[in-house]
Specification:
alpha+beta; Jelly Rolls; Immunoglobulin-like; 17-stranded mixed beta sheet; six-stranded mixed beta sheet; disordered N terminus
Amino acid sequence: MAKKKAAVGADIDWYLISIDRLKKFGAVVLLLILAAGGVIYYLQLRQNPRRRAESEIANARSALNSLAASKDFNKYRQEFGRSQKKLDEATALLTETKYPESESAAVDAQTIAKTALATQPANESDAQFLTVEGDVQFQKSATNDWRKADVRSPLFNGDWVKTAEDASAELVFSNGSLYTIGQSALLEIYSTVNPTTSKKQNSVQMQVGSVEIATTDDISTVRTPGSQIVVDSESTTQVGIDRAQKSTSVIALKGTASVAPAAGGVAVKLNSGEVISATRDGGLSAVRKAILPPALLSPSENSVFQVTTNSRVEFSWAPTPGASQYQLQVSRSRLFATLEINARRPRTTALARVSSEGSFYWRIASVSVDGELGPFSQFRRFRVAGVGTAQQNDTSDKTPPALVVKKPFNIGGQFYMIEGKTDPGATVFINDEEVDVESDGTFKKLVSFDKVGRNAVVVKAVSPAGIQSIQSETVFVEE
């Protein structure tokens, strides 16, 4: 049949279009309709809390099914149970029309399941104890038994850690982030998986107590009863939770951090020197400036005092604008797990009698006119020696200090723990960076090696007379 041509001009009644072109045109129209429908559905989903919760519950079921289908399912039965419990909780909250809480529980269920699927080999822990002072215990996720923590005890997703009144601990994670846990604290290791990169990210859930997070080149997350804190890379942040009110206080000491309500919402950015509070229900206060710690004056670092009947140590520090008082702490512990002195002073000086030998650490915090305690300064060390034993002041001794360095221990990836022992009073440098030396001469430092292949580790101990002992080790970093 010949194609009928349409008249040209205002009298056009129709266009003649081939069947093939009509099919192509219909396909394009159909795609446009589907795309428009997808956009409308997406916008409705974002604006509808119920649909968001339902979507996350569906994603959680999918993740749980993937875990159940894993050939290594028996290894992940504990994680499967925890994920299923969270999914059941999300479903119940959805029925109760608590949509934000339901969405949050569903995301938790996904995280647990996806983390299990992305788990590294069993010998690669999520974290381990670096330092333990006092009564520190941990509990495996599948048991009810608390065990005494030891240095290098491995910790995995779902494990719990608690510290007693006079205890403190340091945890190092696989990405090098350092968590310093304060007294009377309770937290859960809660590693998450970045859905974009499938890379494990380190985090903890704090129930009570305090923790200081120092990150390397990756972020770390702290969840509290009312908030979620993301500490940016190369940053240090302190997080404290009140035992009675379950309120959270967050102070950014270095770099930046973000604080958001636990149930979701807009995150608030904190810069260095800023503080914010969060209620148990997730209400955030206004950001305010933290009162800064004073500059320490005396005693200077590594000062030595002798025990005599009239021995005294005079502490002094510079005044801080806006401070009404100062909190002085002196401890034999680098983590200040136990305190020899813990007193408030209205002035910028204090005097203490020296009665026993040993190494001590001291630090100061400012107290505002409202009675709010600010962050503590970095500590300084001093040593008290018996009469005739304060050889740190004897520069005539030309004997090199003892130095024993253990084989470098791989924490994970490019991170290695360098440990050793020297004479008490000696100064130690690892690759030209000074490290803390405990009262018994032991030292340790977490070192990150960016170069793939062989890396040299040079450890140097220097006596008070300036005599050196040097030892080198080699670590091999795989690509």
